[in-house]
Design brief:
By secondary structure, the protein is an alpha+beta fold. The strands form two sheets. It has a three-stranded mixed beta sheet, with helices on one face. Strands 4-3-5 form a three-stranded antiparallel beta sheet, with no helix packed on it. The two termini are 21 Å apart. The relative contact order is 0.29.
Amino acid sequence: QNIVDIAIKECKKVGGKKINCITLKLGKAAGVNIKCLLFAFNVVKEGSIAENAVLNYEEVDIEGTCMKCKKFFKLKDWCMDYYIICCPLCGSLEINLCKGKELEIYEIDVE
């Protein structure tokens, strides 16, 4: 709901009448089920200026620093099936993620 509401608000700010596409930046560790997100999007856009809009997303890989070994790491192949993110170098759970938790509107295509 919030994604559609924000997109409609931004569309109206620039004088737009219709939303064609919304593109999200979606981190692999954001905890978002894509199928559920797309289903909900299709429900809440009905009857609005986003009714015919498409929802696209760009996945953001996980990047962070291990607090134990102090190394920077990237996890490109990580998926939500793993549930636990640990340092790929030393196995520590003491990590600080700097990328991969995003859920933000990146672009709105309007007419």
